[in-house]
Amino acid sequence: MGITGNAQQFLTGKVYVKGSSDTLISVSIHNITTQRYDLSDEDGSYRIQAAPGDHIAFSSVGHKTDTLTVTASILTAFYPVYLEIKPQTLATARVEYNNYQLDSMDRRLEYAWVYDHGSERRFEHDRNGDGVGVQMNIFRNTSTEAKQRERLQKRLQREEQDYYVDFRYNKDYVAKITHLQGDSLKTFMKKYRPSYDYCRKAAMVDILVYINDCYKQYVKPVE
User: Fold this and answer.
1) Which of 149, 148, 142 is CA-nearest to residue 117?
2) Phi, psi (5° rounding) for residue 23?
3) In sequence order, which ranges of the chain are alpha helices (DSSP H)?
4) Residue 12 CA to chain centroid, in angstroms?
5) 31-45 residue pLDDT tens
6) What pLDDT digit, counting tens, does each position of 50-87 carry?
7) Among residues 25, 33, 28, 41, which one has the least CA distance to residue 9?
């Protein structure tokens, strides 16, 4: 069971990609000591109950897991966390379907504690720090926690759909067809981003035709 006290303390901050200002959403944050959990939100911010001496693990698919030991000083201020991209992620373009499937399975394992009540949390063996692998019964059987589980599941489902659209309508592929670069490419991709339902039904040739048709509209002179 989680340890609680009269005065609850929280570790707060943002999770970033190491070496950049990019934030990471839906990073799994676990207080290994008290078996509490949280996810970073849409702008990378996180907040989890903690006390000095607790071990907190930060993990995200495609990044190295990091673990820290809470001290009194880091509980009094905003504490940024930086996760390093795994080398194999940097070396792979990830435009092949098999790579997308692998990423999807990794995400399912990473968030098993959201989908599978009472499941054992997966920890990586190459994490930094001195975290101890323990079995976590993360959700308690209350209506509030059931609603929280449902909310997190819906959020992760939306993100999984976004990942799929990114896979079918990826930057390298669109740039190859349109020859757009930089801000022009970003503007085009945002304006003509297809829906998840369309991407699920469309064959590869359909995506090609769709991008070509959208590009014709994009460069069409204003009459």
Assistant:
1) 149
2) -95, 160
3) 87-91, 97-110, 112-115, 143-168, 171-178, 182-191, 196-201, 204-219
4) 18
5) 999 888 888 998 999
6) 999 999 999 988 888 999 999 999 998 999 999 998 87
7) 33
Up-side HSE of residue 90: CA atoms within 13 Å toward CB?
8
Alpha-carbon gap, residue 29 to 121, rounded angstroms: 12
Q: Which residue has the tokens 């390093």?
A: 84
Distance between CA 59 and CA 27 in Å, rounded? 6
Contact status, residue 177 vs residue 215, Cβ threshold 8 Å: yes
Closest CA to 61 of 31, 95, 101, 120: 101
**Residue 119 DSSP symbol:** P
For 154, what's the count of Cα atoms within 13 Å in the CB-facing half-sphere?
6
Both tokens assigned to 81: 């966390």
Helix/strand number for the chain, H first, E second: 8, 7
Using CB atoms within 10 Å of the CB of residue 190, give its burial: 0 to 12 exposed, 13 to 18 middle, 19+ buried: exposed
